[in-house]
Specification:
about 15% strand; 3-stranded antiparallel sheet; about 180 residues; Nucleotidyltransferase, domain 5; alpha+beta; two-stranded parallel sheet; 7 helices; globular
């Protein structure tokens, strides 16, 4: 692992059927420390029926796409465990992402084998000052127009790296 990878957090981002208690995960995106990305569309379980059309307008994923291209919950949970086993992966929306991952693993009937942590726990105070502007600039530079989980995970990771580098902050990421 290179020194840059040691300082680069792995990021997870989830898209969901909506917000609130009845919502559930529909897409999971991962940006690993190596820069490699992964995306998983989730076929909703029969018990997952809640759908918010406003959320669909944001992420652009229809129920029809999930039904035709989504993978089964047990397959997604197993793949995530294999990919992330023993690692700490960071989220900028920890509260919601933790809840949605919990729903996924509970229905899959297997234990989550990686740790989810708040990205903000790695921040230096100066990073907050530059976050929004850097995020918008990178969004334009990377030409990321779609609001999708893997693109968002990569954008969040790159924003973290750039805001950290702007202040020459050295942060050791938990593995």
């Amino acid at each position: 692992m290179t020194n840059k990878q040691e300082l680069t957090p792995a990021i997870i981002d989830l898209e969901a059927s909506g917000f609130g208690r009845r919502s559930y995960p529909i897409e999971i995106g991962i940006a690993l420390a190596s820069g490699q990305t992964h995306c998983f569309l989730i076929k909703p379980h029969a018990l997952w029926t809640y759908w918010d059309n406003n959320a669909e307008r944001v992420h652009g994923i229809s129920r029809e796409i999930l039904d035709s291209r989504g993978r089964e919950i047990i397959e997604i949970a197993t793949s995530l465990n294999e990919l992330l086993y023993g690692q700490t992966i960071y989220s900028d929306g920890w509260g919601m992402d933790m809840s949605w991952l919990g729903k996924l693993y509970e229905l899959a009937g297997i234990a989550q084998q990686f740790r989810l942590a708040q990205l903000q726990a790695l921040f230096q105070p100066q990073q907050y000052e530059r976050w929004h502007d850097t995020y918008k600039q990178l969004q334009n530079d990377l030409k990321l127009k779609r609001h999708r989980a893997s693109a968002d995970a990569l954008l969040i990771q790159q924003t973290f790296i750039h805001t950290r580098e702007q202040f020459d902050t050295k942060i050791k990421v938990a593995r």
